[in-house]
Amino acid sequence: MTEKNVLQPVDAAVRRTAKTFLRSARHAALATLDPASGIPMASRISVATDSAGQPLFLISQLSGHFGALEADPRASVLLGEPGKGDPLAHPRITVFGRAQRIADESRALLRARFLARHPKAALYADFGDFAFWRLQIEGASFNGGFGKAYQLTPEDLCAPTDPALDAMEQGAVAHMNEDHADAIALYAREHAGQAGSKWQLACIDLEGLDLISSDSVARVWFDPPLTSADDLRPRLVDMAKAARASTSR
């Protein structure tokens, strides 16, 4: 008897939904391998993403998973919060790969992206026993609910990056939040279906924007994605114009 393949084909809609999970998550369960026993252990962490969409997290050397990752970088993170009713009926994604401790020139950029999502972490982010880590995605298992199982590749989840956009991101985010709060509100309402809260811009990448309002995160997608940093300003202007035109109808 042949084994039934329960995996569904991956299309653009599945990729977009899975990427939205990654970009909009604030917390996750991190699973590592205990160096003494080899038994998997899981712990809750705060997460953000790098510009490619790979998970970032900040952990202390006093935690068990810090030593576990130093001994064996293989790890996974589970993202997705249950809602009402059966928790297994709600979407979730497990992303797996190898964790890399951030200790090079990219730390400042990744620190800024993480703190944009978790500003209170600035109180301890630079303590000597804390370090930022990135999970280098090797694959993922996405469950969209009963009968909706998908196996995803790094190519399905990771976006292209542009060093020039990374370099200008913090300045662009600050400028938009200080001078264009009205445009950000339009992006939230018209492009992410979110209204009634004070939204701020947190992060920018070639595929879209991450907006935050207190503990909420909203993803705004660029359609089509930007091809370079030069596309950012005209695209933001066009999106604001389109949103204003929509609200005036």
TrEMBL record:
Coiled coil ranges: none
Taxonomy, superkingdom: Bacteria
Name the UniProt record assigns to this protein: DUF2470 domain-containing protein
PANTHER family for this protein: CELLULAR REPRESSOR OF E1A-STIMULATED GENES, ISOFORM A, CREG1 PROTEIN
Domain DUF2470: 169-239
Domain CREG-like beta-barrel: 16-156
Pfam families: CREG_beta-barrel, DUF2470
